[in-house]
Design goal:
Number of strands: 10
Strand order of the largest sheet: 1-4-5-8
CATH class of the largest domain: Mainly Alpha
Order of helices and strands: HHHHHHEEEEEEEEHEEHHHH
Largest sheet: 4 strands, mixed
Number of domains: 3
Structural class: alpha+beta
CATH architecture of the largest domain: Up-down Bundle
Radius of gyration: 21 Å
Low-confidence stretches: none
Strand content: 5-15%
CATH superfamily of the largest domain: Butyryl-CoA Dehydrogenase, subunit A, domain 3
CATH topology of the largest domain: Butyryl-CoA Dehydrogenase, subunit A, domain 3
Number of helices: 11
């Protein structure tokens, strides 16, 4: 709503503007269709791939264009202004890729990252289970050593890009007796025998994004597909989320911005009592609050992405702050946007109804906002303890 000079390079501005153009010209005309039928938007994915946008979060030596999280956030934000679900198809690939970027061997990176950077293959992250959401240490999927292989058994639930992605970063228990320290991370390819998918989930929002179960039944993978070392899975998960939560925040920010823009446009056009409703002070105050919240979220999202890119000591806390604040703002702003539209806002013919549904999940996945607050509090406690020594 209010552009500010964040010191972006000419290349970053051009990339952001390209994503904005794709959102306006290619996504907006079809977002209602994809929301209604729940199909995966492969036509949009191909456009993003052709424009090289999948390479921005991958190092140049593996086919990417620089490995900048802020670049991925800018793209996700712009796409999310048009459709949070279609934007997630892009951003979820980053979530599935970061375990490989952070902890993959050179051989693993050379094998998988170039195809992801080119948009030839999508990625996904398999952590959540029926009884293991925020409690990642409660996962039941196992990986049993069998000579030079591991055999995976278990089910992952609510996996974004499930069934559409070709490459999966999966967390499984290699030693149940050690709790969270017994979890390990693996790369599993889509066509591996014993690896199949459950039904496509029928969701409230982000319906263009496909969500399925990952089912492992005696799925044998080579030991070379272990990420890092055994017992490293929980650490891989937490560090991955530190790097990717600003992406969720960017999705939430974009949804909020899209809703705010729609609300302002509608309020200028809608007339009551002979004049535009935007002329009424009560509505002006509501829009002013929405704009202030969006602007504050934008500053925090960019700060968190910058902290990740510079490996700042406070990146974990800032990532959690950005995710929880931006998603709370998205829920508040989209709800208020529906209110601005009045009865029309409740109808599917207008975009804010969809934006409100899409916003809700950003408060839940990659750690609920209650978990984010715990992370921030724990980081504060640790920082205070260090100062007192």
């Amino acid at each position: 709503m209010f552009d500010t000079d964040y010191g972006f390079t000419e290349e970053q501005i051009a990339m952001r503007d390209l994503a904005r153009q794709i959102a306006q010209e290619k996504i907006e005309p079809v977002r209602a269709k994809y929301d209604e039928n729940g199909e995966f938007p492969w036509d949009i994915i191909k456009i993003l791939a052709k424009q090289g946008l999948f390479g921005v979060f991958i190092p140049e030596e593996y086919g990417g264009t620089g490995a900048k999280l802020i670049d991925m956030c800018l793209i996700t934000e712009e796409l999310s202004k048009a459709c949070g679900g279609i934007a997630l198809c892009y951003a979820a690939t980053a979530l599935g890729t970061f375990p490989i970027i952070l902890y993959g061997s050179d051989a693993q990176k050379k094998k998988y990252l170039p195809d992801i950077a080119a948009g030839k293959k999508l990625a996904a992250f398999g952590l959540t289970e029926a009884d293991a959401g925020s409690d990642a240490g409660a996962i039941k999927t196992t990986a049993t050593k069998d000579g030079d292989h591991y055999v995976l058994n278990g089910t992952k639930q609510w996996i974004t890009n499930g069934g559409e992605a070709e490459i999966y970063s999966v967390i499984a228990m290699t030693d149940k007796t050690r709790g969270a320290r017994g979890a390990s991370a693996f790369i599993v390819e889509k066509d591996t025998p014993g690896f199949k998918f459950g039904k496509k989930e029928n969701k409230m929002g982000i319906r263009a994004s496909v969500t399925r179960e990952l089912i492992f039944e005696d799925c044998k993978i080579h030991k070379s597909q272990l990420l890092g070392r055994e017992g490293f899975g929980f650490f891989v998960t937490m560090k991955t989320f530190d790097n990717t939560r600003p992406g969720v925040a960017a999705q939430a920010l974009g949804i909020a911005e899209g809703a705010l823009e729609a609300a302002v446009t509608y309020a200028r056009e809608r007339k009551q009592f002979g004049k535009p409703v935007i002329s009424f002070q009560g509505l002006q105050f509501m829009l002013a609050d929405m704009a202030t919240q969006v602007q504050a979220a934008k500053h925090l999202v960019y700060a968190a992405a910058h902290a990740v890119d510079t490996k700042h000591a406070n990146m974990s806390a800032l990532s959690a702050m950005a995710k929880l604040y931006a998603s709370d703002v998205a829920m508040k702003v989209t709800t208020d946007a529906v209110q601005v539209f009045g009865g029309y806002g409740y109808m599917k013919e207008y975009p804010v109804e969809k934006m409100m549904r899409d916003a809700k999940i950003t408060q839940i996945y990659e750690g609920t906002n209650q978990i984010q607050r715990e992370i921030v509090a724990l980081e504060m406690i640790k920082k205070a303890a260090r100062k007192s020594k």
